[in-house]
Amino acid sequence: MTLFSYCLSIMGEVLKKEAYGLAVKDESGVISPFHFSRRETGENDVRFKVLFCGICHTDLSMAINEWGFTSYPLVPGHEIVGVVTEVGAKVTKFNAGDKVGVGYMVSSCGSCETCTDDQENYCPKMILTSGGKYYDDTITYGGYSDHMVCEEDYIIRIPENLPLDATAPLLCAGTTVYSPMKYHGLDKPGMHIGVVGLGGLGHVAVKFAKAMGIKVTVISTSDRKRDEALTRLGADLFLVSRDPEQMKDAMGTMDGIIDTVSATHPVLPILDLLKYKGKLIMVGAPDKPLELPGKKMVVGSMVGGIKETQEMMDLAGKHNITADIELISADYVNTAMERLQKADVRYRFVIDVANTLKPREKDVRFKVLFCGICHSDLHMIKNEWGISTYPLVPGHEIVGVVTEVGSKVTRFKTGDKVGVGCLVGSCGSCDSCTEGLENYCPKSIQTYGFKYYDDTITYGGYSDNMVCDEGFIIRMPDNLPLDAAAPLLCAGITVYSPLKYHGLDKPGMHIGVVGLGGLGHVAVKFAKAMGLKVTVISTSDSKRDEAINRLGADAFVIKDAMRTLDGIINTVSATHSLLPLLGLLKPKGKLVMVGAPEKPLELPVMPLIFERKMVMGSMIGGIKETQEMVDMAGKHNITADIELISADYVNTAMERLEKADVRYRFVIDVANTLKPTP
């Protein structure tokens, strides 16, 4: 794949909808906030806002990789309910506003024997809702998230009369017990079934069996749930499996048994309860093999197909069947998992997603309108510095308009013009951070291609929207056009910061600017606004008129300016000699390197020793001085000279940038030209 087609694939990565949720990052099972993306709504897709999501024991098993096939990061959740917000062009069964849900699967092959038999749950190519691999090789993310997108055929309609929170668990627990009753003919009125275990699955099994007109015996290891089973859930009988007399009296009385227990337990006493040709159906998943006596029928069952899941849901609506739940907030999920491991829940945890799963309270989200293209973007795309992580979404000269703010954001509101530069995070406590120089924090987080606090990779501004901590957001002056102001967030601060930090900002001082490109032309503008005398230093005379007549430089030098400059801002990234530049400095003069040549430069030491000259580097600036720079730009109407381009021109722009064929900065018209691909 060529460099520039890869750049397009990077941009394609951003043409998805940003999502926010909770994820497990490793086998510790700890769940933490997670930013990710879901695909755009396809023509057969339904997108819905997630209101509630049940917590299944499978979520716990997957979180800690108990079954050995978990892929991280894992966004759990397959008992997902909400309200439709968008449907694809070919969707016929759902409309915006419909109450819907998604259960254990989001796709299957559609053509194998099990699929044609409406048993997609047994399709060898069935795709799990959480932790499965989708057709595009991405990992599927579950319902511990703010929204969901799924093919129409795997969406379940939720009856209007059922409360969504208590209905959510039916999408797994409900169909897990309903499906084997129907499939094995244990749904006939007057039949007698047993339910082993009165937990998340068992209590729902009792409710469905009673709705079918079936006699139900609950089988448990202790007597403490007797009243719950008989009085609250309406079971007909209760058996203590450890009581030999009770078990003996019930031998041969049951047509079938639904065994919901996941712990290792003896099967023989349960089999004895069955009639001749009775069926023991295992729906719990013990982590160790059970001893299986060689008589009577033992079968397994796993959730149900889409058709029978909808039938189950319709029956639930008809008989007002819901799960007994404990509604929890998103920040309680880790505690809920600990309690679930101890079976300390009656009977299902359900996360109040819509009301409690919120992005970080100090975050600002904004619609990206424009994003500048920096030469660093090209370096990172090509991995010239050896630190790139793919997929890479470039862009750190990002401007737009605020669309949403967190609950504790105080400095910004919806509608504000804002920007993000090269940084989105730092430790906040080291010497550099306390001095307002977060750019030198050893834990600083770059806007793209770096690991964020939640171990996700940061994505830059070649995208439709951006979210960032308030402390790293820059307010853009109302009088500046956003397209031409965007490059200031990198190019502007890169030249402004060293002028200020090294005291080269005093009116009347004389500075040189080496190179008249994206950085150099902005350096001239800021230096003139500070009242400095500016000499542009170039290898050829071709830019003399540009420097003096357009940008307002005082002089243009190729040679013959020895010992005249207080400081020099060197913006050149190509390999070049430093000796002639040092000769231009006065004694104690400062040569500040802001360009980044790929190869080391030779450093002449004698001029430094004999005239106390200094050579130092500088990299962008801290957030405080970036805001000062932008404010100064607003005061003096300083912007970059730009070439505005469409998103589909980016690869060509990168080729031209590599040849220095731009005056002086490319800026992508994101809002008007970055559109999803068909």
Automatic annotation (TrEMBL):
Its cofactor is Zn(2+). The keyword Zinc applies. Residues 29-351 form the Enoyl reductase (ER) domain. CDD domains: CAD1 (cd05283). Belongs to the zinc-containing alcohol dehydrogenase family. Coiled coil: none annotated. Keywords: Metal-binding, Oxidoreductase, Zinc. PROSITE patterns: ADH_ZINC. The keyword Manganese does not apply. SUPFAM superfamilies: GroES-like (SSF50129), NAD(P)-binding Rossmann-fold domains (SSF51735). This is Enoyl reductase (ER) domain-containing protein. InterPro entries: ADH-like_C, ADH-like_N, ADH_Zn_CS, CAD-like, ER, GroES-like_sf, NAD(P)-bd_dom_sf.
